[in-house]
Amino acid sequence: MPRTKFLCDVLDESFYQSSYRDRRSDASSRELSKVLLRSTTLYIGNLSFYTREEQVWELFSRAGEVKRVIMGLHRFDKTPCGFCFVEYEDREGAEMAMRYINRCRLDDRVIRTDWDAGFIEGRQYGRGRSGGQVRDEFRKDYDVDRGGYGKIVEKMMRD
User: CA-CA distances (angstroms) from residue 156 to 59, 128, 133?
Assistant: First the structure.
């Protein structure tokens, strides 16, 4: 008799492979794919600017033993800017987080998790022109948990 398939049994390739490509990386797509298959590091996005490291640690430790959490910071102000990296002690913990925590709510926001090749010093800083995340530069809606309007809209309103 065939076994019943559950939603968690049906994993597409995105569970194992990230669609994100770090443009600052020198690695080829093939090299990056190999690294991601062994990685124990996750990128966490869409965090509120007010989410604390302790909250991230508490949520992600439910999936496995967390080695460290690196909060994303505004490049100039050194204040939180809506992302972080979570490193696990082993691959199993990271896979559990990808499977069960991706798209969960934290601080009333739906967060997203993605495989990361591994944290390198300097990547904790926002890459946008204003010092935050690039995606927040172009946001047209008002999002109180991510600093209000996007920086480009904010500038247009001032001018």
Answer: 38, 17, 18
How many C-beta neighbours within 10 Å does residue 58 have? Answer: 12
All domains in the chain, ordered by first residue: 25-126 (3.30.70.330)
**pLDDT tens string 38-76:** 999 999 999 999 999 999 999 999 999 999 999 999 888
Q: How far is CA 138 from the centre of its chain?
A: 18
Q: What is the pTM of this model?
A: 0.77
Q: Could you give the CA distance from residue 83 to residue 134 in angstroms, rounded to a whole number?
A: 12
**59 with 95: CB under 8 angstroms?**
no
Query: Dihedrals φ, ψ of 34, to 5°?
Result: -65, -45
**Residue that has been written with the tokens 């194992």 in this structure:** 16
- What whole-number distance in Å separates Cα of residue 151 and Cα of residue 77? 15
